[in-house]
Every structure is written in C-alpha cells, then in structure tokens.
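Example 3.2
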Amino acid sequence: MIVIYRDNNANAIFVEDNNGAQFLNNLQAVQDNPTDSTLSVVDIARDIEILSDIEYTEFEDNNGIPWGTDGQTTTNNLNAIFQATGGGGGNIPVITSNLTVNLVQGQTLNYELTADYGVGYEWDLSTVSDIVNVEGNVRKLIGGSSLVNGTYNIPVKAINYYGENSETIVLTVSSPPFSNTKSVFFRQNDYCSLTANTSNPLYRSGNNTGTAWSVGFWFKAGTSNNQNQTVLCFGGNDTNNEGRVQIRYNGNNGSRQRMAVFYGTNNNNLDIFSSSNSTTSGVWDHWLFVYDGGTTENGSGGINTSYSRFKIYKNGVLETPTNTNSNFGFSGGIVTDEFRFARQTGGGQYMRNCNVDELAIWASDESSNASTIYNSGSPFDLNTLTSAPNNWWRMGDGDTYPTLQDTNGTLDATMVNMTVADIVNDVP
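Structure, written as tokens:
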C-alpha cells in the first residue's frame, strides 16, 4: 500500500511506499484516461514521476482509508490535498526555545528544542562529547555532568520544506557555590603521595634558578609533642645529600607549639620557625609560608639574606621567626624525587592526629595577599583571588576516596594507609 496524507505541521505531503517515507510539495496526480484504474504522481518541481501507473486501490491515507472508489475519484481527491500545500507561501522554521542554558558543574542537562514549523532537526555535538540526544526524541538533549567549567557552543538547525533556521545554543557551565564541609585527618603512618615534577613551584634546579612560591593551608594541631610532623614535603629522598622543602608542625611541647619550614638537606639547611606557642592543639589556624625566589647562600656571610627569603604568616599576620641553620644554610637544588603530604621525602616524620584543609600552592610570593587569603577566618573560593593558586586541594570537598583532587592542576593526591573515614566533617 501507498500511504499519502497532508501533514499540517509540516505543511507538506507525507508519501510512504516500499522505498520509504518522504515529505514533498508541488505534487500532481495524473491519468492518461479518466476511465483508467491506474494513476501516477508527478513531482512538478523536479519534473519527475515519483509513482507510475499505480492501481487506485493502492492509495490510502494515514488512517488506512482509500482515497477513492476508482481511478478518477482517487486522482481528484489526491489533487485536492496536493493543491493545499507547497507554493511560495510556506513558512520557514523558527526556533523558539531558549538559546542560553546555564548548568552547574556536575549537573545533568535536560534540554528540549522547540520550533515553529519544524520538521527535521540537526545538532552539532562535537564540542560536548558527553551530551547526547534522547532515544526516540531528536529534539531533546541530556548529559553534560562531566563538563568542566566554561562556555560551550552547540549549533542546531530546524528544517522544513521551505528552508531552515540555524542557531547556536550557548551552554555555560559554572562552579557550584563554594561550600567547605570536609577536611582530612592524618593519623600516624597516614600520608598522601603525589607526582614530583619540574613544573612544581617548589622545584629548584640550583641556586638563582628558583621561582617564588607560597604554600597556604588550614591546620588543626594534634596533641603529640613529636617535633617533626610533616604537613608537606617536596624534594630528594636522600635526605642527607638532596635538597627538600619541608613544612612541618613542631609539636605540642610547651616550649615549641609552632610551625616550621625546612629548606635544604640534613647536612646543609635553613630551619625557620613561627613563634613559640603559636599553635594550640584542637584549634584551627591558617598558615601561609612564602619564599621570594631569591638566592640562598651556603656561608656565614649570607645567612641573614637567606633567612630573609622566607616568611611565615599565621591568620594573615606576619610571624616573628626563630631562625636556625646547619653549616650556614643551603645553596643547592630542590630535586624531583618525591612529593608528599604528611610524610617526609625519604620516609618517616608523619603527622600525628592533625587535620589539614584547603591546601594550596602558588608560583608567586603572596605576602601582600596574606590577609586576603586568610579572609577573617572564613575559608572561601581561592579562585576568586586576583592571583589564584596553581594547585589547590580541597581536602575532602568534591573528592572521592582515595583521591584528593587538585582543583586547579593535575597533581591529584593518593591517600596511603588511610580509609574513607579519614575524610571528616571537621572544618575551620
């Protein structure tokens, strides 16, 4: 059977035979002789017969009703609907759905295209590979939960037999509202492993080759008086001969209770401490450690210059440091053997029952922004700063055990000797 009917939405004629279905305009039914039981259908625009010498009994509408009781009535009835379509008075499609779509990172898109006079639709989804059409509904899109922050342009067309309407849907993916609900609790023997590489701001191939850096984090000290509790360590695993940067908690001993930054090797180093009793067990504080990128000497004449390269800020306020050294300091490189949280390179010197939150590294001297980064005691979105960090670990928020995601870079941290229970609901 040949199904023919007028589609009012498309303003065109639907024709389906054994060769498939199509929408057409400018058709005419013709007979060689009114007494014939056969007829043909001509596409006037292309001047071709699309159906030739077909018995009238083969023609029916979309409800299965025959178009006539003989060849002549079938021809007349078909021409009646053919003449009601086509011509120059048709309407091209007009896309009516919103062309601006906003999505929060992690959400799933649910979008449906609407258009007046639309019959067919085409999408270009090449820039949004995880967005797809809904099966059975070419006008609808879903997906997008893995898209990163940014703006994505999605070209689309609505088409009918008079023309097309081409538009671009602008999809904007933004960060979710900042919320700090998690930190990481480090017990003894807990630590995180990261990749050490030369793109890390803490790396230095030799003296006069370093870049300025800043390391900031929220820290809640434990009760252990062990004086070597590593927060962060980058550098050589031969601690006697290869340089490292080590930021540590100096323990809960009453004469110390302070933080420190160690720069160098066990044999040649600088060791710079915050003021005594600047930490209190069980209390959250923000710490910012800064290196200005200048030379550090290995000799008594340059030791004060070496000390001046480093600053420590507690809660946005510059500390008055206590400075010590071994063999008048360190002038070598900081190598790329290991990068760890809560454990020294080369092993040992773990944290003991301390919390860390919102750990970030800048490839710049952030001394002038210390107070802003502290933010009056309220953790906030560090990417809103004029100088956003190069690396930022939220320490639980948005993370899935055992990975602590680097929000701004590619240095994800892997939790070692730990469990999902070490991501805790304890925050500044």
